[in-house]
Design brief:
- The chain is an alpha/beta fold.
- The protein has 2 domains: 27-349, Up-down Bundle (ABC transporter transmembrane region fold), CATH 1.20.1560.10; 372-447 and 527-614, 3-Layer(aba) Sandwich (Rossmann fold), CATH 3.40.50.300.
- The chain is built from 19 helices and 10 strands.
- The chain has helices at residues 29-42, 45-75, 83-136, 139-144, 147-189, 192-239, 241-246, 250-303, 308-325, 328-349, 411-418, 441-446, 462-467, 475-484, 488-493, 511-525, 541-554, 590-596, 599-614; strands at 372-382, 385-395, 400-404, 426-431, 434-435, 448-451, 529-533, 559-564, 575-580, 583-588.
- The strands form 2 sheets. The protein has a 6-stranded mixed beta sheet. It has a 4-stranded antiparallel beta sheet with strand order 2-1-4-5, with helices on one face.
- Strand 1 (372-382) and strand 2 (385-395) form a beta hairpin.
- The longest helix has 54 residues, at 83-136.
- The two termini are 32 Å apart.
Length: 615
C-alpha cells in the first residue's frame, strides 16, 4: 500500500530491531514468563496471602470429610447400650459432615472472591502496558505487522493470565496440598503401603499425562497458528472490502479463507484424537490404583486390622484425589498454552523501540513561534535504498515552504521524520535550535499538525473524529473547525448530523469528505507547525480553491510545510523546493523558479497544458 503518496519510500521491515518478525520462544520461556508475571501479582500481596489461607482451609475441610464419614460408618456398625446414642451420634456426625462440606465451598468461594481483584488487576496492567508499548513502537513495525494475528496474540495473552492463575492457584496447588495431607494420613493411620501405592499411582499418572500432553502440544500450536492465519486473512480481506469487489475476487478470498479453515480443522481433529488417547490411559491408571487400594483395604477389614469405616474413608480419599486428577491433562495443557500465549505477549512488550526518548529529555519549547530547520539530513528505510541525500532547508517562524516533485522523491519522508516516526541517520532536524531527538516525542508531535493525503478515520462519529484533534474540545469548537474546513453544511444535512458514523476507516465518507474532516481535525488542534501533505488532492476544483483559502488563513503566523503535486496550490509559498530522487535540485519562489526555466518550469508548463486540455 502506498503511504502519503510516496510509492518508493514505503518502508519494509528489515531484519533489525523493531521489525514485526516473530521471535521463537526460548527454552526457558516458561520460567521467564512466570518471573515476569510475578511482580504484577505481588502488587496485591495481602490478597495473595489471604487466598492461600482460604485455599489451605478449604483443603483441610475437604480432607476432614472422609474422616468424618469413616466415624459415621463406624458409629452405625455397632449396637450401643444407650439407645439415645443411636440417634445422637449419627445426627452430630451428619451435621458435622454437612458443615465441613459447606466450609469447603465457602473457603473456595472466598479464595476466588479475594483473589479475583489480583487476577483482573494483573490482566488489566499487562494489557494496558502492551497497548502503550505498541503505540511507542516505530512506524516500521506497524507497517510490517499483521493486525489480525497480532491482536489474536494479545487477546490470548490476556486470557492466558486468567487461565494460568485459575488453573495453577485454583487447581494444581490445592490438589498438591490435598495429596500431601492424604498421604500423611494414610502413612500414619495405616501401613505405609497405602501411601506408597497412592504415591506410585500419582507419579505414574503425572508422568504419563505430562509425556502425552507434551506430544500433543504441537497439535495445539499448529491449531493456534492456523487459527491466527485464518483470522489474519479474514481481517485483511474485510479491511480491503472495496478492492475485493473491484476485482470480483470474492470466491478467491473465500477459497483462501477456506484453505486456512481446512488446515485448522485437521489440526483440531489430531488434537481431539490424541486427547482421547490421553483420557483412556489416565482412566486405566486410576482404575488400577483404586483396585489395588481397595483390595488391600478389604483384606485389612477381613483380617480385623481395619474397620468398615476405614474402607469407606480410603475409597472417599481416592475419589477426592482422582476427580481433580482426571483434569490434570487439560490443566497441564492449558497452563503450558497459557504460558506460551503470555510469553508471546511479553515478547511483544520486549520488542525494542526503534525511536525512543533520551533519558530526562525536556519538552520542546515552541511558545514564541517555531523555526524549523533540516541540516544535512540523510535517511534510508533500508541500508541499501537511501531515500534522502544531504537535505538542508529551513522554514522561519510564520513562513511557508513548499516541496514539490515526482512520486518517490522523498517528499512525504520529510513529514515522517519531523514527527519522529523514524530518526535520521545523518544530520539533524531542529525546531527553535532544539534537536528533535533530544526532546520528548510527545512535545514534538504536540507542536505539529498534519493533513495527510491518505486520511484514515476511527470507526466512530464525525464529531469524535474532528474532536480527536484536541480531545476535550467543546461541540462549538468542533463545529467552528468544521465550518473552516467547509464540511459543516454537509454534516448538518445528514440525518444524524455530527453523530453520523463514518464507518470502518471512514469508508462511509467520500475521499473529499474524509480529507475535509482531516483538515478540520488539524485546524482544531491549532499547532504552531502545520504540514499539508497533498491536503486538497481529493477535492474538486471549486472546493479546493475555497479550502485553499481557509488553509492559507489557518497558516497565518504559523510555520508551514506544504507537500504538493499540484503546483497551483503552492504559488504563494515563501520558498519552493523541487525534489527528485531524494535531492533538492531547485529552490526559490514561484517567479524565480519559472524564470530559471528548469525542472519546476517544465512541471508548471505540463500542468498548465493539462488543465487547459481538460477545460
Amino acid at each position: 500500500m502506498r503511504h502519503h503518496g510516496e510509492s518508493s519510500s514505503a518502508p519494509t521491515a528489515p531484519a533489525t530491531p523493531g521489525t514485526a518478525v516473530a521471535q521463537p520462544p526460548q527454552k526457558d520461556s516458561d520460567g521467564r514468563t512466570l518471573k515476569r508475571l510475578l511482580p504484577y501479582l505481588l502488587a496485591y500481596k495481602w490478597r495473595v496471602a489471604a487466598a492461600l489461607m482460604f485455599m489451605v482451609g478449604a483443603k483441610l475441610a475437604n480432607v476432614s470429610v472422609p474422616i468424618l464419614l469413616k466415624n459415621l460408618v463406624d458409629a452405625m456398625s455397632f449396637k450401643p447400650s444407650d439407645p439415645a446414642q443411636v440417634l445422637v451420634v449419627p445426627v452430630a456426625l451428619l451435621v458435622g459432615y454437612g458443615a465441613l462440606r459447606l466450609m469447603t465451598s465457602a473457603f473456595t468461594e472466598l479464595r476466588e472472591l479475594v483473589f479475583a481483584k489480583a487476577t483482573q488487576g494483573a490482566a488489566r496492567s499487562i494489557a494496558l502496558e502492551t497497548f502503550q508499548h505498541l503505540h511507542a513502537l516505530s512506524l516500521r513495525f506497524h507497517l510490517a505487522r499483521q493486525t489480525g494475528g497480532m491482536t489474536r496474540d494479545i487477546e490470548r495473552g490476556v486470557r492466558g493470565i486468567e487461565s494460568l492463575i485459575s488453573y495453577s492457584l485454583y487447581s494444581i496447588v490445592p490438589t498438591l496440598i490435598e495429596v500431601a495431607l492424604v498421604l500423611s494420613i494414610l502413612a500414619v493411620k495405616f501401613d505405609a503401603w497405602f501411601a506408597w501405592i497412592t504415591l506410585a499411582a500419582l507419579g505414574f499418572y503425572i508422568f504419563f499425562t505430562v509425556q502425552v500432553t507434551e506430544w500433543r502440544t504441537h497439535f495445539r500450536k499448529q491449531a493456534n497458528e492456523f487459527d491466527s492465519a485464518a483470522h489474519t486473512k479474514a481481517i485483511d480481506s474485510l479491511l480491503n472490502y472495496e478492492t475485493v469487489k473491484y476485482f470480483g475476487n470474492e470466491a478467491y478470498e473465500a477459497n483462501r479463507y477456506d484453505e486456512s479453515l481446512e488446515r485448522l480443522r485437521k489440526a483440531r481433529l489430531k488434537s481431539q484424537t490424541s486427547l482421547s488417547l490421553l483420557n483412556t490411559g489416565q482412566q486405566l491408571i486410576i482404575a488400577a490404583a483404586l483396585v489395588a487400594m481397595l483390595w488391600r483395604a478389604t483384606q485389612g477389614v477381613v483380617d480385623g486390622r481395619m474397620t468398615l469405616g476405614d474402607l469407606v474413608m480410603i475409597n472417599a480419599f481416592m475419589i477426592q484425589l482422582y476427580i481433580p486428577l482426571n483434569f490434570l491433562g487439560v490443566l497441564y495443557r492449558e497452563i503450558k498454552q497459557s504460558l506460551t500465549d503470555l510469553d508471546k505477549m511479553f515478547v511483544l512488550m520486549d520488542r525494542e523501540r526503534e525511536v525512543a526518548d533520551v533519558p530526562h529529555a525536556p519538552d520542546l519549547n515552541c511558545q514564541a513561534g517555531a523555526h524549523l530547520k533540516f541540516e544535512n539530513v540523510s535517511f534510508a528505510y533500508e541500508a541499501d535504498r537511501p531515500i534522502l541525500h544531504n537535505i538542508s532547508f529551513e522554514i522561519p517562524s510564520g513562513k511557508t515552504v513548499a516541496v514539490v516533485g515526482p512520486s518517490g522523491s522523498g517528499k512525504s519522508t520529510l513529514a515522517r521524520l519531523m514527527f519522529r516516526f523514524y530518526d535520521v541517520q545523518q544530520g539533524r532536524i531542529s525546531i527553535n535550535g532544539q534537536d528533535i531527538r533530544q526532546v520528548t516525542q510527545h512535545s514534538v508531535r504536540k507542536s505539529l499538525g498534519i493533513v495527510p493525503q491518505d486520511t484514515v478515520l476511527f470507526n466512530d462519529t464525525v464529531a469524535y473524529n474532528i474532536g480527536y484533534g484536541r480531545t476535550g474540545a467543546t461541540q462549538e469548537e468542533i463545529e467552528t473547525a468544521a465550518k473552516a474546513a467547509r464540511i459543516h453544511d454537509f454534516i448538518v444535512s445528514t440525518p444524524k448530523g455530527y453523530a453520523t458514523s463514518v464507518g470502518e476507516r471512514g469508508l462511509k465518507l467520500s475521499g473529499g469528505e474524509k480529507q475535509r474532516v482531516a483538515i478540520a481535525r488539524t485546524l482544531l488542534k491549532n499547532p504552531p507547525i502545520l504540514v499539508f501533505d497533498e491536503a486538497t488532492s481529493a477535492l474538486d476544483s471549486a472546493n479546493e480553491r475555497a479550502i485553499q483559502a481557509e488553509l492559507a488563513s489557518a497558516a497565518q503566523n504559523k510555520t508551514t510545510l506544504v507537500i504538493a503535486h499540484r503546483l497551483s496550490t503552492v504559488v504563494d509559498a515563501h520558498e519552493i523546493l523541487v525534489m527528485e530522487a531524494g535531492h533538492i535540485i531547485e529552490r526559490g519562489n514561484h517567479a524565480q523558479l519559472l524564470q530559471l526555466g528548469g525542472r519546476y518550469a517544465q512541471m508548471w508548463s505540463l500542468q498548465q497544458n493539462s488543465e487547459a486540455d481538460a477545460g
